[in-house]
Give the backbone structure.
Amino acid sequence: MPSSPSAFASPALLAQVAAIVQQSGEIIRRHNAAPRTIRYKGRIDLVTETDLAVEAFLHTHLAPCLPEAAFLAEESAQSLELPACCWVIDPVDGTTNFAHGLPLVATSVALWAHGQVQLGVINLPLLGECYTAVRGGGAWCNGVPIGVSNASEVHKSLVATGFPYTVQEELPLVIQRLQAILPATQGVRRCGAAALDLAWVACGRFDAFYEHCLKPWDMAAGWLLVEEAGGVVTACNGTPMCLENGEILAAAPGVHTNIQALLVHTNK
């Protein structure tokens, strides 16, 4: 593993990775026009042949880009432990959306090294948007620079959230947080794909996004994207962001503290 983080936070490597991720989007577009083959990993946790095909494509094509990097990918991960250097991949974030024909689907790829996300790509193949970021190099959508919103008042803010697959067990916290956020803001949206939500915070469509019970592949690329777009990313209680703790609050700097204050008064 190279000794310097800058060896990973490379615009040239980002361009290479973005091209591969965009190529994988063709699999999603092609499968979107065909009948779905669906199986269940849990009561409401789906996996399709598309998830498996995209993950296999990314594994094959990303491996030569950085031979020393391991893989932590949703459909093949044996644990949530982050290797020192690895690709963190969600091949189809929003599988339930995809299974129902909704276009709110993302492929998320991040490079984790030296204890940080060094680059990230979130591709929305059915919407024609590809978001990219490299540490220290800003955030982009389809090659155009993006930034978080200039929101400064919570009551004028549009907030996104998500619900975990274990929603039955987590329902008290989900409801508590909605009870705090919903009346205090302009509205709450639930798209069903955390990577997409984070990309839309980064480009200013949403002013904030929060969720818990997430996995590293749901958050890794979006974490960097929001920060490089000028946003603030922490755990929901305001402590430093950590991929392993499963929760995130990403927001425009003008509203992050106040939204976090609303969330911190809810208890697990």
Summary: The mean pLDDT is 93. The longest helix spans residues 11-32.
